[in-house]
Design brief:
By secondary structure, the chain is of the alpha/beta class. Among the domains are: 214 residues, P-loop containing nucleotide triphosphate hydrolases (Rossmann fold, 3-Layer(aba) Sandwich), CATH 3.40.50.300; 188 residues, 3-Layer(aba) Sandwich (Rossmann fold), CATH 3.40.50; 79 residues, Arc Repressor Mutant, subunit A. It is built from 27 helices and 24 strands. A hairpin with a 5-residue loop joins strand 14 and strand 15. It is globular, with a radius of gyration of 27 Å. About 1% of the residues have low confidence.
């Protein structure tokens, strides 16, 4: 440590702790961050790989500042997206802080009331808290907020990437803004993350309107060895005999590939700790069940545990405990609940079944492996493709599951990740913050709300004054707000009831799926991440269904079996796909270059994909006739494709996102008609959101969207889900000035 300038900046008691821990040097991120943080004079982002020492990079200098500060009641507020992370950090910080005589206070729903009471009596030290608990602070202790946070020296935001572009992120910005207004000073903000792509975007999120002043620490310490293998499995669709109590989902052909993948996992993963990520809760349960049965059949102890958001906290904790203990190996079959930095001990490998929701998600997951010195990070990918038949099913012939996974891994290796939709206006969260602020202060005025939330330096500064008035007016009509004779805004009867319920403090709604109902009989449920249209086909339970009605209030899609036609080419994935991923997929199909990290079967899938791409001339094909439907190839991401589907819907056409393009129902239209509509759109000014989303169903996604007037619901949906600029750039490049207008087909009666 003798040649470390940063080490000398730390308090001597912290230096002694470092020596006692046997550290021989500070890590790269720590050397860079300590000088920036120790004086508590600026906002800082620390971006470094998982297990690169980010927590210590922040807390060693922050605690040094606290020890040397003249403020008797100095406070560090650490904000985490997960209770489990708070518990982990408490374990890491408590031993260090005990020697420093600095108290550490975990604060969430499972913490005893007497512990919280001790903190409130003297709010000093380190407070570990979630945004939801901070919301409860402001709602329920309005008169005490100034005293509680008076000594705050830092706000530390862990897993910063998990907040950017989300309802919780806008809630977090609002809470920090509100606290700073109460204590009448700016508090340095420190953001931590292992998964940030655009640092300027992250800085703008951490300190809105002043992102250019945020210091950024990026650790470029050499990464360890990375081993990747993608295995392909072909689904032969063996018919099974239906059981009497089978649901519609179970009546389709028997799938053999999942059992083959499970057998491979069973053979390779037993004896070590691992994480396996299928793409849904249903698949988590399926693979856990198969693997448990394999353990029982082999008469060996079970090593496979489930972990997803629908499980009780007790069951999730059992899985986490199994991973942490060292006596017996354990593998978690999980959703994104184990993506973030919960301490689950050393993980040997990560398995991904099917393409991940995003490249960012894949990077976060892979960061859980290879954390021990000298051990490689290991990623195993598993892709299932249906057997090719004479029927032209594009998803099958193009081998899209495999191509998408290979594309995402190649982008990961280039250190690219998706930028979040950071420009979203999140009006659902504004409603929550309005109701919360009224609780904090016992009432407020419209002008006070506007000054706090909508002025240029405020979290919702993009909202026009007239839109803000419309919002307040609608909240009154929904009985969320009422106004007394002195113009003071108070909770309406419904607002009072909702604010007093424990679920109010969360800005996000629980994950909801739409029920699928046919002839009054429930078929199951399906997560829906894009607009649905009447007349659209969906694939469910191995069968094709026609959407007859979408009821957003009841979260129900009413369907009937289709007669004839083909099922939708692409049934959608676990996340919204970025244009960069789709373009990389096209590049992979158009080239003959070898991919070194795929097995023989996956390599065959790539060859078959490239052969189909060449056979169908997809390098220059815009539309492809599929009988009752036309496929429109855009090679754009979902946010731009959804805009194009709206443009077609304005002309009476039914279209929906389908992988690298859209499927359009013919209904008397031809490819030329579709291209003609797109040509006309390319030479016109983009329509307003009101025009673009006219007639669109199921736009309510966020918790309080139901309370928005229709025009603001469309604006918030558009800001979060649509990329109009990218869609129109594609239209204009596809139909450049001077291009011949596609000739519409001649319709005959």
């Amino acid at each position: 440590m003798t040649d470390s300038n940063s080490f000398t900046l730390l308090d001597q008691r912290i230096q002694r702790y470092i020596w006692a821990e046997g550290w021989t040097e500070l890590r790269d991120a720590q050397e860079l961050a300590i000088p920036l943080i120790v004086e508590a004079k600026r906002d800082v982002i620390v971006a470094a790989a998982t297990a690169a020492g980010k927590t210590e990079a922040v807390f060693l200098p922050a605690l040094t500042h606290l020890l040397g500060s003249k403020a008797i009641d100095g406070l560090i507020v650490y904000i985490s997206p997960l209770k489990a992370l708070i518990n982990d950090q408490f374990g890491r910080l408590d031993r260090l802080c005990k020697d420093l005589e600095i108290p550490v206070w975990p604060w969430h729903g499972d913490i005893a009331a007497n512990v919280k009471a001790k903190f409130l009596k003297r709010p000093t030290g380190v407070l570990l808290i979630t945004p939801e608990s901070m919301e409860a602070f402001l709602c329920n202790r309005g008169t005490s907020v100034g005293a509680i946070f008076a000594g705050t020296q830092y706000f530390v935001v862990d897993e910063l990437h998990a907040f950017i572009g989300s309802e919780r992120g806008k809630q977090l910005q609002s809470l920090l803004h509100r606290v700073e207004k109460v204590i009448a000073r700016t508090v340095p903000r420190i953001g931590l993350s292992a998964t940030l792509g655009d640092m300027q975007l992250a800085a703008d999120f951490l300190r809105p309107t002043k992102g250019a002043e945020v210091a950024v620490v990026e650790s470029y310490a050499a990464a360890g060895e990375l081993r990747i293998l993608v295995k392909g499995y072909e689904e032969l669709a063996v018919e099974r005999q239906p059981e009497p109590n089978d649901s519609e989902e179970d009546k389709g052909p028997e799938e053999i590939a999942p059992a083959q993948i499970a057998a491979h996992l069973f053979k390779l993963l037993r004896g070590s700790n691992n994480l396996v990520f299928p793409n849904s809760r249903r698949e988590v349960e399926r693979y856990t069940h198969i693997l448990n049965e394999m353990c029982a059949k082999a008469q060996v102890p079970n090593e496979f545990w489930p972990h997803h958001g629908n499980l009780s906290n007790e069951l999730r904790c059992e899985t986490e405990a199994a991973l942490k203990q060292h006596e017996h190996p354990a593998t978690a079959i999980c959703t994104n609940t184990l993506e973030l930095g919960i301490d689950i001990g050393a993980v040997k490998s990560v398995a991904q079944i099917g393409p991940p929701p995003s490249v960012a998600s894949l990077r976060q997951r892979l960061g859980r492996s290879g954390r021990r010195k000298g051990e490689p990070a290991i990623l195993r990918g598993y892709c299932i493709e249906s057997a090719i038949t004479s029927k032209l099913e594009l998803a099958v012939h193009l081998r899209l599951e495999t191509v998408q996974m290979v594309a995402m891994i190649s982008l990961l290796l280039e250190h690219w990740i998706e930028p979040p939709m950071a420009a979203g206006i999140h009006l659902s969260t504004l409603i929550q913050q309005i109701l919360s602020f009224i609780s904090q202060n016992g009432g407020t005025t419209a002008s006070q709300l506007f000054a706090l939330f909508v002025t240029p330096d405020a979290p919702f500064s993009g909202l026009a004054p007239d839109d803000f008035k419309d919002l307040l007016r609608n909240l009154g009509q929904k009985d969320l707000l009422t106004q007394d004779s002195s113009d003071l805004l108070l909770h309406g009867q419904l607002g009072e009831r909702l604010v007093n319920h424990y679920s109010f403090y969360a800005a996000f709604a629980s994950d909801e799926e739409f029920r699928i109902v046919a002839s009054g009989k429930p078929l199951g449920s399906l997560p829906v991440s894009q607009m649905m249209h009447v007349g659209q086909h969906i694939l469910f339970g191995g069968r094709t269904w026609l959407v007859e009605e979408v009821n957003s209030d009841e979260k129900t899609i009413y369907v009937v079996r289709t007669k004839g036609g083909v099922p939708p080419t692409f049934s959608g994935g676990a996340g919204r796909v970025h244009t960069r991923v789709r373009q990389r997929m096209r590049e992979l199909m158009a080239t003959t270059s070898d991919v070194k990290f795929v097995d023989e079967t996956a390599q065959r899938f790539l060859r078959e994909s490239r052969a189909a791409y060449a056979r169908l001339s997809l390098d220059k094909t815009l539309t492809l006739d599929q009988g009752s439907q036309v496929f429109l190839f855009t090679w754009l991401g979902d946010a731009a494709n959804e805009v194009i589907s709206c443009l077609l819907a304005r002309q009476g056409m039914t279209a929906w996102i389908a992988g690298p393009g859209l499927e359009v129902m013919k209904k008397g239209n031809t490819s030329e008609d579709i291209e003609s509509v797109l040509y006309d759109a390319s030479i016109e000014e983009p329509p307003s959101l009101l025009e673009l989303l006219s007639g669109a169903q199921n736009l309510e996604r966020a918790k309080w969207d139901w309370a928005l007037p229709q025009n603001l619901l469309q604006k918030t949906y558009g800001s979060l889900n649509l990329n109009i600029e990218e869609a129109f750039n594609w239209l204009r490049s596809t139909f450049p000035d001077g291009a011949t207008r596609p000739r519409p087909s001649v319709k005959t009666d």
